[in-house]
Amino acid sequence: SEPAGAACRVMRGDRVVAEVPATPGTVELTRSHAILEVRCQAEGYIETAEVLRPRDDPAVFRMAPNGIIGATATVISLAGALTMRYPGEVTVALPPEVFASEAERERWFAGRRDRILAVRATEIALAEDRCRTVTEGSCDPNLMVMRQEQEDDLRRLDALRERAGLATQVAEAR
After folding, report:
1. How many Å apart are CA 47 and CA 167, to the nearest integer?
2. Which residues have CB under 8 Å from 101's CB, separation 6+?
3. What is the Cα–Cα distance from 55 to 90, expressed in whole angstroms?
4. Buried (b) or exposed (e) across 146-165, using 16+ Cβ within 10 A?
5. How far is 73 from 66, CA to CA, in rounded Å?
6. pLDDT of residue 81
7. What is the dihedral of CA 2, 119, 57, 24, to 10 degrees?
8. Where is 74: in which H helix or E strand?
9. Among 34, 98, 108, 133, which residue has the fewest nearby CB atoms (within 10 Å)?
């Protein structure tokens, strides 16, 4: 987490899957299709969550889906999420509850926004290139999913920004 020392929980809905009492820390997650959330909190910072979305793991051996054995192996690996994995690392950046100035707050959130956009920039660009080469049929269906996930992440960031106060607001409230 940024800052280090935050207490974090890995959540699947309302259920705690794993905990890290103080970051940095490591947890082991089983392969799954489930979307998880890493929720972190630290004194003086806004509780923040990062979404962990499972992705297809290209390093997993796949039997060709030929014949009854291959088809059965494919169904089992898909149903059991054996071909999925979560990112190897996640960093949760917690914004301060109070920023010294509007400019400092805007700079912090602009940096986070740029990072969200950069994370998917290459994947989205590749999918868009594939779509430009398609003459018939549909474009890469993952492109729509990637764009939606990015928009969801940006919406969550905007909600955090709304919660972040300014030192002048705190002084006026007293």
Report:
1. 19
2. 166, 167
3. 14
4. beebbeebeeebeebbeebe
5. 10
6. 46
7. -10
8. helix 67-79
9. 133
More confident residue, 98 or 135: 98
Q: Are 112 and 157 in contact (CB under 8 A)?
A: yes
DSSP conformational letter for 32 = -
Which pLDDT tens digit goes with each residue over 24-59?
999 988 878 789 999 999 999 999 999 998 876 555
Q: What is the pLDDT of residue 62?
A: 46
Q: Please compute Rg for the chain using Cα positions.
A: 20
More reliable by pLDDT, 75 or 114? 114
Q: CA torsion sign, 42 to 46 to 47 to 48? A: negative
Residue labelled with tokens 């979404």: 51
Which letter does DSSP use for residue 52 in this model?
A: E
User: What CA–CA distance (Å, rounded) separates 19 from 5?
Assistant: 13
Least confident of 37-46, 66-75, 152-161, 162-171: 66-75
- Angle in degrees, CA 36, 148, 86, rounded to 5: 30
Tokens describing residue 161? 């920004």
Judged against a pLDDT cut of 90, whether residue 101 lies above it is answered with yes
User: Which amino acid is located at 131 in the chain?
Assistant: C
